[in-house]
Amino acid sequence: LACFEHRMVIRISLILFVCLWLSAVSMVQQSEAGDPGELLWKFKTEYNSFDRRLEEIRDRAAALIVGDSVYFGGYDGNFYALDTHTGQERWRFITGKSINAVPALLSGTIYFGSQDQHVYAVDAATGQEQWRFPAGGSMTDAGPVKGAFASAPVLWENTLYAGAFDDRVYAIDAATGRELWRFTGDNWFWGSPAVHNDAVYVV
Description:
Helix content: under 10%
Low-confidence stretches: 1-32, 53-59
Structural class: mainly beta
Order of helices and strands: EEEHEEEEEEEEEEEEEEE
Largest sheet: 4 strands, antiparallel
Shape: globular
Strand order of the largest sheet: 5-6-7-8
């Protein structure tokens, strides 16, 4: 995660880099934070062999910053919560495959999809699982998994919308993980859904 004046460039790779967000406020603040562009900390994730097969979607991952915590999923199948000031790991949640999209947050719960065919809801403070929702399809070791969730889920009025590689879009109750409805298309859904005027748009 790299931050510079007037722009933000976000990239999660095997090593998460965090630099200073430079703002023209006072010399005191700048001196306390260090030199502009100085590396503040870095965090190394784990590595699994299946990461090599996800070259075409690996750059979709992104971080979510809430308060003094930064949340992101890794190609190692872990979802991490770190301290934004120190880079210290607060907790991690283990899934079965890579996590390739930015998570969503509502009322202290983090929501994210994984290549292991599940959408997860975990407590943002502790990493404790609240529920998991399975997609259809079959788990394979070769190529992207049929039923994988590779795009960011979208929250709208306590409903979570997520597209998957089983050719379906799911509407899930954000509080319970219960399926509300599903739509079956003709192919995988790569993009995050958008909601407008009681309609859901998916690609």
